[in-house]
Amino acid sequence: MSDDLQKALAGVRAEIDGIDAELLNLLNQRARCAQKVGEIKAEHGEAGHIYRPEREAQVLRRLQDANPGPLPNEGITFFFREVMSACLSLEQPLGVAFLGPLGTFSESAATKHFGHAARLLPQASIDDVFREVESAHAHYAVVPVENSTEGAVGRTMDLLLGSSLKICGEVVLRIHQNLLSNETDLSKITKVYSHAQSLAQCHEWLNRVLPNAQRISVGSNAQAAQKASEEAGVAAIAGEAAATRYSLPRLAENIEDEPNNTTRFLILGKHDAGPSGRDKTSLIMSAPNRTGALYELLLPFSHTGVSLSRLESRPARHALWEYVFYVDIDGHRDDPTVKAALDELAGRAAYLKILGSYPVAVY
What we know:
Blueprint: H1 3-43, H2 53-66, H3 73-91, E1 95-99, H4 105-114, E2 119-123, H5 126-134, E3 140-147, E4 151-152, H6 154-162, E5 166-174, E6 178-180, E7 191-195, H7 196-201, H8 203-209, E8 214-218, H9 221-230, E9 234-238, H10 240-245, E10 250-252, E11 262-269, E12 279-286, H11 293-304, E13 308-315, E14 323-330, H12 336-348, E15 351-359
Parallel strand pairs: 1-2, 1-3, 7-8, 7-9
Antiparallel strand pairs: 3-4, 3-11, 5-11, 6-9, 6-10, 12-14, 12-15, 13-14
Helix pairs in contact: 1-3, 2-3, 11-12
């Protein structure tokens, strides 16, 4: 390395060191402000509400709008989520339940939303995830609700019908599937383990590249990765988190058939989220069993100009051939137009349950 190059690098590195020292000081100033917020809440009897999803969404959107680059908005969002996560943990680490084991896409969604300072609580089933929050063993739950290629997650939707938990946020996770194995030669792969949904998402790739390998469905992609780490001639289809946790090389990356494969997760808690300026409201409704009943349920949204972003039917569990409708609408339940629509809907629906209003996912 030439002397001129060393001098040039030394100057820039010294500048970086100075910026790092300033960042360190500013981050600790921010943490002290977060502590003051906690103290003020405690004085006013709000100590249990340390996490405010609407406030977090507002901060992240403001930072994205103000971002001059060269860092992309995605990087800015990641960095500041981690800062907010660390600051929250000074008051109380948030317990977050999700469908385990560790290494699943649900873990990735939980970490994406709550940061690495959260206390992660993997559960054996989606039912157990709900119960952890309902019994106050966890503050929040992260549950999958729909996938862009495989559709709705029925168990989550069924549990929402009977649960007292509120939707207070959402996470949208881009799903990249990888073929993981300790084998270095694809020709030696005789078995491929994965969750049934992941096998379906990679069906055409497997037909093309591993047509003779046996496909075996297991409870989770993390479980598949664990098996691949222990058995010869075995591969797993799983995400990056599982590859890292089980130290498995990637024989092939991004093998999903649909390039825009995305899963949406809901954040569930015991409280509503306040208005953030860009929100959704989710609800469940049912219509009387008569001609034109669904049309009548949709009229309040037409009358008030409220936009529906999702409408899906599910069998009602209390009666044969009866259905309930899961609906997402744009706006917060406190918005005047949304409130008017919901008030009118309440007079028309045989059953109406507001699942929650919450900020639209910030990428």
